[in-house]
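Students often ask what a holo structure prediction actually looks like on paper. The answer is less mysterious than it sounds. You provide the chain, you provide the ligand, and the output is a string of discrete structure tokens encoding the 3D arrangement of the protein together with flavin-adenine dinucleotide.
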Amino acid sequence: KRNNTPKTLIESFRYPRYGIGEISLRMGARIEAENRIFRRARVRTLLHDGSRIMAVLWEDEKGEIRCHEATHYLSSIPITEVVRGLDPPAPPEILAAAERLRFRSLVVVALFFDCPQVTETSWIYFPDPQIGFGRIHEPNNWSRDLVPEGRSCLVFEYFCTAGDEVWSLDDAALVERTLADLSRLDLHPRLPERVIDRCVVRLRNAYPIYEIGFKEPLGRIMRYIRNFSNLTLMGRYGTYKYINMDHSIEMGMKAAENLLGRRHDLLGVDADPAYLEGPPLDSAA
Ligand SMILES: Cc1cc2nc3c(=O)[nH]c(=O)nc-3n(C[C@H](O)[C@H](O)[C@H](O)COP(=O)(O)OP(=O)(O)OC[C@H]3O[C@@H](n4cnc5c(N)ncnc54)[C@H](O)[C@@H]3O)c2cc1C
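The corresponding structure tokens follow.
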């Protein structure tokens, strides 16, 4: 029997009133009560002696290179950047392994409308190859406080590869393409005419790509990184694990606890077989 109810694993979820960034802002405020956070800091080089990281060279907002020494380094930057940033350079086979780990990129186009709501959904996926974007979400359906009174926002996600045709389009062309595809969807009357603003963001590393055979170069890199007794990799991009925010945060907290003497298995944070399963899809629908 055909059932038109969309299949979903959950019926509701809690979401921060002013958006997901509230979580990291709140954590940052706690950290800054006693410590310092350097924002807009880009790690460029990890100086090492073969068994320990000695210092990190990073670029500040003004493009100046600064140096920081620590007893231990917890890194959530992409694992490939860690490998390429080592000085002296990692062995050629490790650098070659890093070339085999790739990330899927994302272009995000946000359009703002002069109507209070466009859809009633959290996400809509578009597997249709004729439609350029792969997913839409409407943040005002997650929290009304994310938009001004009477306004709404749709966020269009283009899954792509850095440097490809979509990635290279300028902002105006991306907005134009989005509007063209949007006008073919019957989401809301005269939607393209109701756009009052737009914004484009490009994310180079959005998803680790689990290509066939990726475990071989990943394992090779992980074994090599273990040579550095004071370097811990963590997070989705740091460990090349397709984990979500909850597990990324858990991994970071456990990494910090390990510094205090605990022995958590960081790579096992997502090992619970019940995770993402919930009730069988048919009974959840
Ligand atoms: C489109 C999209 C939707 C998602 N939706 C959800 C969702 O609904 N629920 C969920 O739980 N998860 C979701 N995720 C996954 C979630 O965003 C990640 O799991 C989480 O952000 C990983 O945390 P992290 O700290 O490992 O990495 P990040 O949050 O990416 O933090 C790593 C940081 O390192 C910085 N960085 C990179 N290179 C350098 C460098 N060289 N020097 C200094 N800093 C550097 C980056 O700028 C970034 O700020 C989504 C991800 C994407 C891409």
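The chain has a mean pLDDT of 92.
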